[in-house]
Design a protein that fits this description.
With 192 residues, the protein is mainly α. Helix content is 78%, strand content 0%. The model has no long low-confidence stretch (mean pLDDT 83).
């Protein structure tokens, strides 16, 4: 029972104090789940982030669900998911009840300008942490650099190309490379 309460309170704190959506929450989730609580390893966090991005739903909720499942099964997944969702739901509900023109309040509008900058820094921090801990081999680095360049071009030239399509292309290229190299033995689905 203690682990369920710990899961709920940890993810409720993450959900309550992290602004900017799922990408901003990744570094906070990693800090709590990998470094402080050691519920999952960094490699599991990397895999969890990729899977959470690739599956339907908000990335932070998907990450919370995975971490909760890893620690305490289906009940843990449910408790962690509720923990990350409830604070946002309550805050938005209260704002909608009492403040019709919430963003027109000068103090709030100015606070959110500062929050936007902090969110960008949190997202950049998560990206830098993942890059530092990424596999040091040439192929993953090449995929990363090419993906960044393509995303940069898509944004600069306003091309209509989904980031999901880019992930699928990268996955297909990686799979082809994996097959052509004889599917070397590795953890989690290895050739025997």
């Amino acid at each position: 029972m203690n682990i369920l309460l710990d899961l709920f309170l940890t993810f409720a704190k993450i959900g309550l104090f992290t602004f900017g959506g799922g990408y901003a929450m990744i570094s906070v989730i990693e800090n709590h789940c990998v470094e402080r609580k050691q519920w999952i390893t960094h490699d599991e966090m990397m895999n969890m982030t990729v899977i959470a991005e690739s599956t339907p739903g908000p990335i932070a909720i998907n990450c919370a669900t995975f971490a909760g499942y890893k620690k305490a099964g289906v009940i843990g997944a449910l408790v962690a998911t509720l923990g990350i969702v409830v604070p946002s739901f309550v805050i938005i509900f209260l704002i909608s009840m009492f403040l019709d023109n919430f963003m027109e309040i000068t103090l709030i509008a100015n606070a959110f300008k500062g929050i936007k900058i902090a969110v960008g820094i949190l997202i950049l921090d998560a990206a830098i942490t993942m890059i530092k801990k990424m596999n040091k081999k040439k192929f993953p680095r090449t995929i990363m650099i090419c993906s960044c360049m393509v995303m940069f071009c898509i944004n600069i030239f306003s091309w209509n190309f989904s980031s999901i399509s880019l992930m699928l292309v990268a996955a297909i290229i990686s799979l082809i490379f994996f097959i052509l190299n004889g599917a070397p033995e590795q953890k989690g689905g290895a050739k025997k």
